[in-house]
């Protein structure tokens, strides 16, 4: 029943994606592809934090794992779909390792540990620079098809991957396991009494959440045609967390909101700063930072005013409007 | 052998800073049961204030005082304007809000000062004094030890000997009863945040010149390192934070000395992982409170 | 002006439905007034509202004729009203001495006040440096009352001091209340389950039931009605 519904939604999404990519100009298609890559990661993190109540500041690092695997696979074998698959598998393995540790930790301790993971990423690339080539990073080579503009192809690939991720995760959410995840989040003791294996549920949640993050990272590498540690800084992890909080914790639709904001807001602030400042010095300082400041402020305000996120705000408002109508 | 001695003193000097920063984390944890993930960013903001003041006045010490003052103010402001209003329904809320502060503060600093490293000076020489041909430690290291020792002493006096310290402890342990007894619990919380933030600012002032210089992210790694130190000591325990800080400073000094400085963040990660999984209570905490 | 505390039409509660409904209560200066009632009648809620821990949705609370609605909880003790909460509220992590000093940190004469309490409760004097969690139930109750006295209050709100104590100790506490009343003119609002003890020292009392005052009369009449003697 729900499976059918999800299939129909995914098919509609696919048709929509195809139609849209034909219409958009190349730059917008590239942005769409970026949004799709972020969506994989935000959707994964939504599952973990929203549904299972575990926080992770390490999803940026998981994306890096996917991205570097992508680079190795592309430069070694060169089959795009195989590379994406390998990136997911590698990230799944790393996610399982972190997940085992995470299942024993709570709240601030887990946040601190995953923060340390995020900060260790550049160190890994420098320490093992024969493999990762330090800060310069690695190129990601591929042969684009001749029949399509490259951005359209990128948008179709990334968008298709994101749709697949959303389809699979939506089914996880509505499955028995999804209920177990929520039960563990709401009350571990009660969940245990209800016969749920808490630790196993938590590890598995981490794994399920890591795989799409790895895919998202691989897609980012595919889009940038290059991978370097700078792209996977702590800020990226904070971005992802922000995206899911603003979108609405535990809500896959919220993950879409979040991914959209991650692409749209920097774009908006960039055109804003270009518009208002004459001095290149000031423009350089504002560039990027303004978006970050707005993100940070939004994150704080949303947590204080609407902890349910944008999605819940939309729901609340539409609910109120409907109620208002009934009154009249 | 010389190298080992040198690394030991260097590690202790860094460890003193980690101890101070870990103390700041413990202060807030005890007062509010919150791990202040924004502490690094707040401390960097105070260090930037010091930079501006030193630029304007030409005096390191006025800048130093400005850092402490700014630290106090930022701490009070963050508690009054933000943290006080965070809902406690979900223990993640405070962590997420603090991370929002990190993004916000770092971005504002970047807008004001740019993201490049700014030079950061020390008031004393960093050249190691040689004793019998072996370079031991520098005047600046001595300054660091002195500053952190004074800090530890002052905090100990404040909390055990003064009525304000008694009020602060009571407000943390039993807020409602304390109010009935006439303690301004909200005020004590603000004071706790302000103090912790000033302590963090002090740590930032001490450590930033020994690293790459002033940058919005200058305290990111120091934060995680000090968090590790605090966790080793048990988040509840000030003596634990100091001991943990010194231990972590030593370990990291040997790691970076013998394996290369790029390994440090990996070593921090490994250390934190080991402590969290092997010694769930911390070394000094009486309670097993990892599941906060 | 002979009543230290006056409550009129008080309504208060925790959520939508009020727990206290339309409470009227007068406490004459220098008297001991007891509040009796079954579990869940709203006695603790009444004291918490008087102290400002709960904000009333309607009604007035007057201390010496002064409306307390806008007064902060932490100011009340300076106005002469001390509250020993249900469960005593000894801070387990602090020592006996620190707990006591906490009762009057704002006073210039806090040391003298603490010394007086040690004279009043000798067992506490022997345990100055012990942490609160090491005390017995009786010692805790002494500490809680002693700590309230450090503030030198004129009105003392006591929430079930007899809870978990041996009858002998309960009797000592009641005797102490009477002594303080005669010696210092202290007024006491005494919430009790143990009607026999409370009525042995009270001048008057009220009986609460389902958040209302069901009866308000002299202690003598309450003794006749409830203790049948
Ligand atoms: N924090 C709270 N939130 C919601 N309801 C509460 C709360 N505290 C008490 N109540 C309810 O208010 C009512 C009165 O409780 P209260 O504690 O005042 O009773 P009491 O007379 O002191 O009882 P006892 O003799 O058992 O101490 C009860 O129905 C109780 O369930
Ligand atoms: Mg009660």
From TrEMBL, chain A:
GO terms for cellular component: plasma membrane. The keyword Transferase does not apply. It is found in: Cell membrane. The keyword Transmembrane applies. It is a multi-pass membrane protein. This is Branched-chain amino acid ABC transporter permease. The chain crosses the membrane at residues 7-24, 30-48, 55-74, 80-102, 109-132, 152-173, 203-224, 236-265, 286-306. Its main location: membrane. It holds the Pfam family BPD_transp_2. InterPro entries: ABC_transp_permease, LivM-like. GO terms for molecular function: branched-chain amino acid transmembrane transporter activity. Keywords: Cell membrane, Membrane, Transmembrane, Transmembrane helix.
TrEMBL record, chain B:
The chain crosses the membrane at residues 12-29, 36-54, 60-83, 95-114, 142-160, 181-208, 214-235, 242-260, 266-289. It comes from the Bacteria. Keywords: Amino-acid transport, Cell membrane, Membrane, Transmembrane, Transmembrane helix, Transport. Belongs to the binding-protein-dependent transport system permease family. LivHM subfamily. It comes from Rhizocola hellebori. Pfam families: BPD_transp_2. One of its GO terms (biological process) is amino acid transport. One of its GO terms (cellular component) is plasma membrane. GO terms for molecular function: transmembrane transporter activity. It is found in: Cell membrane. Coiled coil: none annotated. Its main location: membrane. It is a multi-pass membrane protein. This is Branched-chain amino acid ABC transporter permease.
UniProtKB/TrEMBL annotation, chain C:
One of its GO terms (molecular function) is branched-chain amino acid transmembrane transporter activity. The keyword Nucleotide-binding applies. GO terms for biological process: L-amino acid transport. Residues 5-227 form the ABC transporter domain. Keywords: Amino-acid transport, ATP-binding, Nucleotide-binding, Transport. The keyword Lipid biosynthesis does not apply. InterPro entries: AAA+_ATPase, ABC_transporter-like_ATP-bd, ABC_transporter-like_CS, BCAA_Transport_ATP-bd_LivF, P-loop_NTPase. It holds the Pfam family ABC_tran. Belongs to the ABC transporter superfamily. This is ABC transporter ATP-binding protein. It comes from Rhizocola hellebori. The lineage of its organism: Bacteria, Bacillati, Actinomycetota, Actinomycetes, Micromonosporales. The gene is livF_2.
